[in-house]
Amino acid sequence: MKEVDGSPETGKEDLDPALRLEAERQLRAVPQALDVPNDPAALRLHAQIQEHELHVHQIELELQNEQLRQTNLELELTRNKYMDLFELAPLGYFTLDRNGVILEVNQTGCNQLGLMRERLNGRRLPVFVQENFRTHFAVFLRRVFETMQPCRVELTLVRQDGQTFHAQVDAVATPTLEGTPPHARAAVTDISPLKEAQEAISLLNTTLEERAQARTAQIQELNDELEALVQSVTHDLRAPLRQINTHASRLRDAAGQSGSQTEQDVQEVMSAVDHLNELVGALFSYFKAGRQRARFFPVSLERVMADVRKGMKTELQARQVSLTQDPLPTIYGDGRTLQMLFSQLLSNALKFSPADSPVQIRVSTQENDREYLICVRDNGIGFNMRHKDRIFGIFQRLHQEREYSGLGLGLALVRRIAMRHGGRVWAEGKEGEGASIWVAFPKEQGQHGQKLNQTSLQGGKTPTLRP
């Protein structure tokens, strides 16, 4: 401190003139304190009050300083915590400008690109983008700053040592202080393991699909050979059967005596030949139905059932039949073979219902997420559930032929047609209480990739679903 004209100086030349002028202006704006009293006692009291006020202000300042130190400490701890999270995050965090220049990067980002922070800051991130992705990244970066919305892109990055890795970049542009351009914060995720897993799954799916196609082709070839064999056998059997029938007729005529043992034997031979002819014809029809080319279109089962009922009008009117049905859906299938399926189901219900009792046949529908379920229930003789697996077999009969005629081929044909439509069949029943034959058709046909809208199941509450 120095004196000028006997007054102390505080180094005015060291102060900012503008700050001094502002301080003087504020000082002049403060109202002047009350005049100091001349009375010594009052003067001492005034001094004591001023001293007390100074002590109070000093304590307040110390408390404020302590609070400020505590706040600064908490801020420092918080900053260190988030810096640790920033540095040790499993993602690479980058701060970029509009040109992709790296302004800030965490340690994970440094490890991803294989360079120290000092060598990354100031460099352009597009330099580390694989060449065929650079235009794509430039468009992405421009979209980030134009939309100011979170954006995502997948590309390939190149490390300093030349190794590449697949990366997912999520970025969003954020405003900065007034007068400074915005920058983008980008998170870079190494998705190489995910890509490798996807490629492995894709390769596995391709391999499985090829194996499935090869197995399907092999099965189809074996099935074609089997059907060709059956057709050949059934065709070749017809000629010898006709010859046996012809010679048996001649033997019967030569026997002469009506009711003789020889005539009876010949008659049994001829009956057996006729039955064998029926079996051969049925087997031929069964395999022929499977080989016929099916044309799949949306088919209304309501219309199919109407055609079946019209075709069976004579059979239905010949007996006391009560046939009721729920609204039926539209499925993807072949109308001709579906008509054959429902015809076999109704014929089966009629056949195994006592001829001297009223027949009740109920066609009901249910559905689940994947299938439409059609049930044809009758009040006939039913069956023992122990034989439920035999009921759909070729030439499988659960009752004596003298009681119920037929070759045991109807439900086998139902199963074959349902399987051609990607469906399934099963049966439920109880002896003396009727039977229920279930057919499930898929809502989504795999080979066509279409899902039909429900067009007929209207009204009424949703029924309980069957397995």
UniProtKB/TrEMBL annotation:
User: Which reactions does this protein catalyse?
Assistant: ATP + protein L-histidine = ADP + protein N-phospho-L-histidine
For this chain, one GO molecular function annotation is:
ATP binding
Q: Which Pfam families match?
A: HATPase_c, PAS_9
- Keyword Ribosomal protein on this protein? no
- Signal sequence coordinates: none
Query: What EC number(s) is this enzyme filed under?
Result: 2.7.13.3
Q: Where is the PAS domain?
A: 78-123
Bias class Polar residues marks the residues at 447-461
Tell me the PANTHER family matching this sequence.
BACTERIOPHYTOCHROME, TWO-COMPONENT HISTIDINE KINASE
Keywords tagged on the record:
ATP-binding, Coiled coil, Kinase, Membrane, Nucleotide-binding, Phosphoprotein, Transferase
Q: List each copy of the Histidine kinase domain by range.
A: 232-445
Q: Does the keyword Transferase apply?
A: yes
* Residues forming coiled coils: 49-81, 205-232
Q: Which residues form the PAC domain?
A: 151-203
Q: Any transmembrane segments, and where? A: none
User: Which stretches of sequence are listed as region Disordered?
Assistant: 445-467
* InterPro entries for the chain: BphY/WalK/GraS-like (IPR050351), HATPase_C_sf (IPR036890), HATPase_dom (IPR003594), His_kinase_dom (IPR005467), HisK_dim/P_dom (IPR003661), HisK_dim/P_sf (IPR036097), PAS (IPR000014), PAS-assoc_C (IPR000700)
Please report the name of this protein according to its UniProt entry: histidine kinase
